[in-house]
Design a protein that fits this description.
The structure holds 2 protein chains of 2 kinds. Chain A is of the alpha+beta class. Chain A is built from 5 helices and 5 strands, in the order ββαβββαααα. Classes of the chains: A alpha+beta, B alpha+beta.
Chain lengths: 156, 743
């Protein structure tokens, strides 16, 4: 019943049953704890990762159904993630920090399809990601900033 | 002044901490130096805040980092005097220890408003604060951390610097007075220099006279917005929270505790849980079960599958019956009348109204969790917490071992807001670890468990009477009923039954800087045993709403501009509070005509030493939903150590308050919370959060807190703006029950 999984470019064979949500395989079996559990019902976005380049709520995706490579906050060498992380640092976005992995992965998804989003487009795209510390205004600013960096760098 | 005599002779029940008979402690004990709890394996420790080894400098910031930036600001206090290189520092929470007592918890000890405290009263509270050293309460809360650490941690940095210089002077054969320090090195006039790392071991045993603290004009780190020490870890997924600890052979657990609060468990059938693939054990915790599995999801599936026979809650069966029980407190005589001016009973009231607020959950982003490992009679725990010494005691008790056999690590907190003072998660984790010795346990609560087993912000009712004459308020008479957070939470924390007047119960109402001739605030304690606790801004979170919204009603009744009306009544009492009203007036352009479809409200609440004023603009497009478009804030916390962190905390407190005021509500049916997850208990999201501007004023002669003061005025300003927009005076929260907001 083992499942093969590619996470951040590394191949894993996982022992969890195929219906186990990807979130718990990442956290409990692979030790990739940067992806967070917040609600279990796709309402907060803390568990957001990419599957095949697309943002998903990992609490809702059975590991057996994962259809492509998984990217988490721990990924290295991803130009879009790096630009966002640099912008997040520059704008000093994180407070408690618990939601920020999900916010960054969601923002990367936005920028992949829209290299120059407007405020409204950012607000709509990020609406599923809660932040109880209320860091929204700096998240928005950091996304604009990262988008600018990526456009200049030609990586967008 | 004669009141002081009557106060010190009885137990004083204060907003943050109870100190019984502070004078009984001997002066000797108070002056005794604290014991340094640090025992570094390598390198040297010069005082409880500093370890220097070959890797570099580590500063201990012994308060919970829950997002408020406290590790950054506390580290900067030491680094400023030490002349350490900011980019090279490591910051740790450090161990639980009496040395890390929080003396500022006692700043609110006297039953007088902060804004009106005399110098002698401030020195009396400092004396009570010194007594907290003996209680050893290492608590992160009450917006006190920076106030508490401001002198102590700078002194630690300064004395360590002088000790390092003394050793260097001997080695270089010069007088210490000619040496200077920079970026972790001692430098002689001839250019020779020695790295702190090579001096630390010798410096650890040098005793030096206490150095003078530097003048703020000479500060290099303090007063500036510094890069936060936790930022890189938090944007790369490397920051560790309670359930991010990876240990070999670890098992994954969750709990299901009786949701009918105050009820218990008559029995359970574990077999459906054990039938879930991955579930290994079901443990009896008395009032519920723990399920241990090969991953957290299996544990959660198992917990849901178990068939449990719950016993009922003793609480009133419906939300209405709960409110009625709180209202019954008005029939008893008040517990306190901390403001009592003029002759309110002889005044006829032009306005007589009732306000209500609901129970609220903390709903931190990180649900409660912990990691625990009992090995050879020693328990190691990782749990985000706001009171480590109390958590150690509870853990030891739950595991059946002595406190010295508990090692507690305080990792990052995924939000605190008061929730993680409570020790329930630690008790469970220690108990599970004790039932499975040798097996590391990662315990994670479901969101439903978290929301249904909170220590809630209490529901509260205010009955207000008021009158105006010739444009001025002549009467404000408030009675406030709620169960007492102070008694519940401090009782749990200290194991003491507290009597006496409860200041926390009326904070935010009795202590506001308004000149009103007939002015009374009475607190009535309700007998309702819902688990309640500290929630961001505590009593201010409901009293600020009651008091300020009623001021707004008085302004309207007087036919006055609401902001100018506040200024007219505040200026004679407190120029500092008037200053924030003026600042928010200027920042928001108050007074200019607002466009159609816009409603603008203002509020000002003085809490945790910091007056904070908020202006909210609501907009509505035709018959569409109401949008919280803009917020303007002005605060005066006195001397500001890190402007960016102050701004972030103000905005954070605002969003937290607006979220609660707009849609936050916990109700109970048969003693069980009706709300279990974010779809039932949501918060502002990016698309419905306002654009925020913050003005920081620094005219307050006393340093105040910043983590909580943004929350109370946000709630009131939102309701006042709704009145301005719709003409509808809503006196009960959440507002979404009365008006359609953008959600």
């Amino acid at each position: 019943m083992s499942v093969a999984l590619n996470v951040n470019g590394t191949r894993y064979i996982v022992g969890a049953s195929p219906e186990t949500p990807l979130l718990w395989v990442l956290r409990d079996e692979l030790g990739l704890t940067g992806t967070k559990f917040g609600c279990g019902v796709a309402s907060c976005g803390a568990c957001t990762v990419h599957v095949d380049g697309q943002a998903v709520r990992s609490c809702q995706v059975p590991v057996g159904d994962v259809w492509g490579g998984v990217t988490t906050i721990e990924a290295e060498g991803d130009a879009r993630l790096s630009a966002l992380q640099a912008a997040w640092t520059e704008h000093q976005v994180a407070q408690c920090g618990y939601c920020q992995s999900g916010q960054i992965l969601q923002a990367a998804d936005l920028l992949a399809g829209n290299p120059a989003p407007s405020d409204d487009e950012i607000d709509t795209a990020m609406g599923g990601n809660l932040c109880r510390c209320g860091t929204y205004s700096v998240i928005r600013a950091a996304i604009h900033d990262a988008a600018g960096r990526l456009r200049e760098g030609g990586a967008g | 002044m004669s009141r002081l005599g009557t106060i010190t002779r009885r137990t004083l029940l204060v907003g943050a901490v109870a100190v019984a008979g502070g004078a009984a402690f001997g002066i000797y004990q108070l002056r005794k130096p604290v014991v340094n709890p640090l025992r570094p394996e390598d390198g040297a420790t010069l005082n409880p805040y500093l370890i220097i080894d070959q890797q570099g400098i580590t500063i201990i910031a012994p308060r919970a980092e829950m997002g408020q930036g406290v590790h950054t600001t506390l580290a900067a206090l030491v680094a400023e005097e030490l002349d350490a290189d900011w980019e090279q520092l490591r910051v740790l929470h450090g161990p639980p220890a009496a040395a890390y007592y929080n003396a500022a918890l006692a700043h609110g000890a006297l039953p007088v408003p902060d804004y009106a405290m005399k110098d002698w009263q401030r020195s009396v509270t400092a004396g009570i604060g010194a007594a907290t050293k003996l209680l050893g309460l290492q608590v992160t809360g009450g917006s006190t951390s920076t106030v508490d650490a401001f002198e102590r941690m700078r002194l630690a940095g300064a004395s360590a610097r002088e000790a390092l210089k003394a050793v260097a002077a001997e080695r270089l054969g010069v007088e210490a007075g000619v040496l200077r320090t920079e970026a972790g090195r001692v430098i002689a006039p001839d250019g020779r220099e020695i790295d702190y790392r090579d001096l630390a071991e010798a410096a650890a045993s040098v005793s030096v006279p206490q150095a003078e603290l530097r003048h703020p004009n000479d500060w290099k780190l303090l007063g500036r917005s510094l890069p936060r020490t936790d930022m890189r870890a938090k944007v790369t997924g490397q920051a560790q929270y309670s359930t991010d600890i990876v240990l070999p052979g670890m098992k994954f657990a969750t709990v299901r505790i009786c949701p009918y609060l105050g009820g218990g468990m008559a029995g359970f059938d574990a077999s459906p849980a054990l039938a879930v693939p991955g579930v290994e054990q079901v443990l009896d915790l008395g009032d519920g079960i723990a399920v241990v599995a090969s991953n957290t999801w299996a544990a959660m599936q198992g917990a849901e599958a178990a068939v449990i026979d719950w016993t009922p809650s003793p609480l009133p069966a419906t939300p209405d019956a709960m409110v009625a029980q709180i209202a019954r407190a008005f029939e008893e005589k008040p517990n306190s009348t901390m403001r009592d001016q003029g002759r309110p009973d002889e005044q006829s009231a032009g306005i007589e109204v009732e306000y209500r607020v609901p129970f609220l959950a903390h709903s931190t982003m990180e649900p409660m969790g912990a990691t625990a490992h009992l090995q050879d009679g020693h328990l190691t725990l990782w749990v985000g917490n706001q009171a480590p010494r109390e958590h150690v005691k509870v853990a030891a008790d739950a595991a059946g071992i002595e406190a010295e056999n508990v090692t507690l690590h305080t990792p990052f907190l995924g939000g605190g807001f008061g929730r993680r003072v409570e020790t329930d998660i630690t008790r469970q984790a220690a108990r599970i670890a004790a039932l499975m010795p040798g097996v590391p346990i990662r315990l994670t609560w479901s969101r439903e468990e978290d929301m249904r087993h909170d220590f809630y912000r209490p529901a509260a009712i205010a009955r207000m009477r008021g009158a105006v004459e010739d444009g001025r308020a002549t009467l404000l008479d408030a009675k406030i009923a709620a169960p007492s957070v102070t008694r519940a939470a401090i009782g749990r924390l200290t194991g003491r039954n507290l009597g006496g007047p409860d200041k926390g119960h009326v904070e935010g109402a009795f202590d506001q800087p308004y000149a009103i001739p007939h002015y009374r605030v009475a607190g009535h304690l309700a007998d309702l045993d819902v688990p309640i606790g500290f929630w961001r801004a505590v009593g201010n979170s409901f009293n600020g709403f009651f008091h300020d919204c009623f001021i707004d009603e008085l302004a309207h009744a007087a036919g006055a501009d609401p902001l100018q009306f506040r200024l007219d009544h505040v200026a004679p009492e407190s120029p500092v509070a008037a200053g924030v009203l003026e600042a928010v007036r200027d920042l928001s352009g108050w007074g200019a005509p607002v466009p159609d479809g816009t409603g603008r409200g203002v509020a000002m609440v003085w809490s945790f030493g910091t007056p904070t004023a908020v202006v909210i603009d609501l907009t509505r497009d035709g018959a569409g939903p109401i949008r919280i478009a803009r917020a303007f804030m002005a605060c005066d916390p006195g001397l500001v150590l890190d402007p960016a962190i102050v701004r972030a905390q103000m905005e954070s407190g605002l969003i937290y308050g607006l979220s609660a005021a707009m849609s936050g509500e916990i109700t109970f049916t048969d003693g069980r919370a009706d709300q279990g997850n974010f779809p039932d208990y949501d918060a502002l999201r990016m698309f419905n959060a306002p654009r925020v501007e913050v003005a920081i004023v620094q005219d307050n002669p006393h340093m105040g807190g910043v983590g909580e003061p943004g929350t109370p005025p946000a709630m009131a300003a939102l309701a006042n703006a709704l009145f301005a927009l719709t003409g509808m005076r809503v006196r009960s929260l959440p507002l979404s029950r009365h008006a359609e907001f953008l959600i």
